[in-house]
Design goal:
Largest sheet: 7 strands, mixed
Shape: globular
Helix content: 25-40%
Radius of gyration: 24 Å
Strand content: 25-35%
Length: about 475
């Protein structure tokens, strides 16, 4: 039996980052990964979807060249090459993760790990591949970073052909002419945006009363308006009936407060949430607690079982790669006896890479009001920003929410071009506990869209200069 100081189960953005930080701190660490280094994010999520979305943005721009004084005839795309480039980007980065682990002298086991008991104060794990045990390993500390998978409901099951999960949606063999996306979180909206930009007729069905339910309601409404302007049909407070497959199409009835909609499409994408990968980990032999498929931990990612930790999607919302990576660092530093700061959920940015992009951090307006604070709220539209106009991207807004008495930045919400690149400015402000005083004094470069961030702060205090 091989002994380690730490074993990380899962090689996704949480697991491999945890292992690399452990190696930096001189911890003898091993990684067990059953499928792909880089996890869902790198192989079937964050990275390949952004490559697809970039291609769709180019397709949109090529069909809107007249705005900039250009003209082009017979614009077309090669879907195989579009998908191929996306897969190539993922492959390159997966190899990069393997290189980093090798460089750090971290041993990687290709298989599935299961807790099988203890040997003294060390947890023993059995590693299997294709049903056969390939190794027995042990460590005092084990980090579970097994991620999550797509959720689906009875009557809305994927079949890999007509009804897709995110996996099939990323590698289409042909472009569907008509598409139904069930769910309007970041995943659903991004796929809707990709396929619409590529020319498909897209309908979004959302059970909640608005899309992007995790976002500020004002931003959500702006996003819906923008998507509908692009031709995406959006049905909210919607109940999707059973999916009936016939002659290569899918038919269903969607009920909303305004009535029933009969819909026939070529493909359906299911994007109705995820469930944690907690099965077959041997948790029944431990004190680890699981609530609705997610492992319960304290603020430092420790479970109720001494020496067992959990990070990333398997440890619950928000289900974001950057949250998983940061948890991995916190967790390892705690194991190493350092004094890391716990991760504040309200300091984790959320990003949706649709057209337009959406980004946020902290409280939305509804939650800020519910906190009982007196608020100051600033808004600045992109139409008042020179760089946005020059880029041909006048549709967007930056919104900031402050505590009127203390000046604390409670939340920031953005919609428009490149906001996923800019939100980090507000994340730094919240992490550093800056107030409106420091943000007012910050010099923003001109001309940039980031100037809307400054103007929004000024607007909250009635001092906006360009509107």
């Amino acid at each position: 039996m091989e002994q380690f100081d730490l074993i990380v189960v899962g090689g996704g953005p949480g697991g491999y980052v945890a292992a690399l930080r452990a190696a930096q701190l001189g911890i003898n660490v091993a990684v067990v990964e059953s499928t792909h280094l880089g996890g869902i994010c790198l192989n079937w999520g964050c990275i390949p979807t952004k490559a697809l979305l970039r291609a769709s943005e180019i397709n949109h721009m090529l069909h809107d060249l007249g705005t900039f004084g250009f003209a082009a005839d017979n614009v077309r795309f090669d879907l195989d090459k579009v998908v191929g480039r996306s897969r190539a980007v993922s492959k390159q980065l997966s190899r990069g993760v393997a290189h980093l682990l090798k460089k750090a002298k971290i041993k990687v086991f290709d298989g599935r790990a299961k807790l099988v008991g203890k040997q003294g104060d060390a947890h023993r794990l059995s590693v299997t591949k294709d049903g056969k045990e390939i190794a027995q390993i042990a460590a005092k500390n084990v980090i579970l970073a097994t991620g999550a998978r797509a959720r689906y409901f009875p009557g809305l099951e994927p079949d890999g052909d007509l009804v897709w999960t995110y996996r099939e949606a990323m590698v289409p063999k042909e472009m569907p002419k008509r598409l139904l996306v069930v769910g309007s979180g970041a995943i659903g909206v991004e796929f809707a945006s990709f396929y619409r930009n590529m020319g498909a007729e897209v309908t979004i069905a959302e059970v909640a009363d608005r899309i992007l339910i995790a976002e500020d309601a004002e931003i959500s409404a702006m996003a819906q308006k923008a998507f509908e302007k692009q031709g995406i049909k959006i049905l909210t407070s919607a109940k999707v009936g059973p999916l009936n497959k016939k002659d290569g199409t899918v038919s269903t009835t969607i009920e909303t407060p305004s009535g029933k909609t009969e819909l026939t499409v070529d493909k359906v994408i299911l994007a109705v949430g995820i469930i944690g990968n907690v099965e077959d980990l041997g948790l029944e032999n431990t004190k680890v607690k699981v609530d609705r498929t997610h492992i319960l931990t304290d603020e430092f990612c420790h479970t109720d079982e001494a020496g067992i930790w959990a990070i990333g999607d398997v440890a619950g919302a928000p289900w974001l790669a950057h949250k998983a990576s940061h948890e991995g660092v916190i967790c390892v530093e705690k194991i190493a006896g350092k004094s890391p700061q716990p991760l504040h959920p309200l300091n984790i940015p959320g990003c949706t890479y649709s057209r337009p992009q959406v980004a946020s951090v902290g409280m939305n307006e509804e939650k800020a009001k519910a906190s009982g604070r007196k608020l100051k709220i600033g808004r600045f539209p992109f139409v008042g920003n020179g760089k946005a106009l020059a880029m041909g991207e006048p549709d967007g807004m930056t919104k900031t929410i402050f505590d009127a008495e203390t000046g604390e930045l409670l939340g920031a919400h953005m919609i428009g071009a490149e906001v996923t690149e800019m939100i980090q400015g507000y994340v730094i402000a919240r992490t550093s506990e800056l107030t409106e005083a420091e943000l007012k004094e910050t010099v923003f470069p001109h001309p940039t869209i980031s100037e809307t961030m400054h103007e929004s702060v000024l607007a909250a205090w009635g001092e906006a200069l360009h509107i």
